[in-house]
Design brief:
This protein is an alpha/beta fold. It has eight helices and seven strands. A seven-stranded mixed beta sheet has the order 3-2-1-4-5-7-6, with helices on both faces. Mean pLDDT is 93; it is low at 1-11.
């Protein structure tokens, strides 16, 4: 693909999609943490370099969920429940967030955090391969959220797209992959992951049944809305 870098500048290893000063300003608008457990989860991520969507994307996920009155969410890759925190707040007491993660320790951490936040009763957390758990879970979802290993992104899109209800959303994190998707030459964290994300993004934007957009905040969040009959 075309190199998006200026020919007069060196090709960096990553591109920051949004200027950090802009993100700092946006973060300043969010106000103080409304629950101490959220700060604990963010402190854990900083201390152990655990990848989470962080506050700005969390608020974005909560807003999207409320905007379509979502009650049923499936998470492909839940870690220790940070994104599930935002989804669970949004679906309300009658809603359910189905979580999946390959590490049983993460499930225990999620239970501790989300119980402290009063949200665990809205969570159905399974340990194992997300794709297998999804196949064993019946029905349509208001939102399918993808944050698994990046090499699996195209597969997750293919199995999830048909189980998003009309008017529902498919959402995936890290779709700009630290700017590598816009670079001709890049150093990948895991070989093949950037190519998988590029394939994933093209599949979504070329799908006539979805309207799609990428929010470049943090590392890029794709939102694809399944069309409804007009």
């Amino acid at each position: 693909m075309a190199n998006m870098q200026s020919p007069t500048m060196p090709n960096p290893s990553v591109i920051v999609p949004v200027n950090p000063a802009i993100e700092d300003y946006m973060r300043s608008l969010t106000g103080p943490t409304d629950h101490p457990v959220l700060a604990e989860m963010e402190d854990y991520a900083r201390q152990y370099n655990f990848p989470i969507v962080d506050r700005l994307v969390g608020i974005f996920l909560e807003t999207l969920t409320k905007s379509i009155d979502a009650r049923r969410v499936f998470e492909f890759g839940s870690g220790y429940g940070y994104s599930a925190y935002w989804f669970a707040r949004a679906v309300g007491p009658e809603g359910k967030v189905v979580c999946s993660d390959g590490d049983a320790v993460n499930r225990l951490k999620a239970q501790g955090y989300l119980s402290a936040a009063g949200l665990w009763d809205r969570i159905d957390f399974h340990t194992g391969l997300a794709q297998d758990i999804f196949a064993q879970t019946e029905g349509l979802f208001d939102i399918c959220y993808n944050d698994v290993d990046k090499g699996d992104y195209p597969e997750v899109w293919r199995i999830a797209r048909d189980r998003v209800r009309p008017g529902g959303l498919y959402i995936a994190d890290n779709v700009l992959w630290h700017g590598r998707v816009a670079m001709e030459n890049f150093v990948d964290i895991v070989p093949g992951w950037t190519e998988a994300i590029l394939e994933h993004n093209l599949l979504i934007f070329n799908d006539p049944d979805f309207d799609s957009f990428i929010n470049p905040t943090r590392d890029g969040v794709i939102v694809a809305r399944k069309k409804t009959a007009r």
